[in-house]
Amino acid sequence: MTVAQWEDEDFGSALSVLWQRHRQSNLDRISVLEMTTANVLRARVDEAGIAEGVQAAHKLAGSLGTFGFDAGSRAALKAESLLREPDIDGRLLAEAVSALRSSVEVVTSNAESADPMVMSHGSNVRSAYRIISSDQDLISRITVEAAAIGMAFTSTSQVPMIDHLNTGRPAAIIIDDGGRSWTDQEAFDCVADLSHESQVIVLADRDTVDARIGFARSGAAGVFPRSQAPRHIVSFLTEILELRQTNHSTVLAFNLQASLAEKLHEALPEPAFLVDTHEELTSLWEALDEKGADLVVVGFNGSQSSGPDLCRLVRGHPRWHRLPIVVVGDRKHSHLEEAVLAGADDYLSQRLTPLEYRLRLGRHLQRGRLIHSLSDSDPLTGAENRMATERSVDRLMRLAARQGNDVAFALVTVDEADHIRETQGNAALNAVLRRLGARLMASFRGEDTVGRWNQDGFALGIYGASAEIARQRISEVLREFGTEQHATTSGKLAGYTFSAGVASFPVDGSTLQSLERVSEIALGRANTARNCVVSSHDRAAVYPPSVVDVVLIEDDDSVADVVQHAVNLRRYDFVRFSDGAEAAKQLAGGTVKGRVVLLDVGLPSLDGFGVLQILRSNGLLENTRVIMLTARSSEAEILRALGLGATEHITKPFSIPVLLGRLDQTLARAVA
Question: Which of the 8 DSSP states describes residue 621?
Answer without folding.
Answer: G
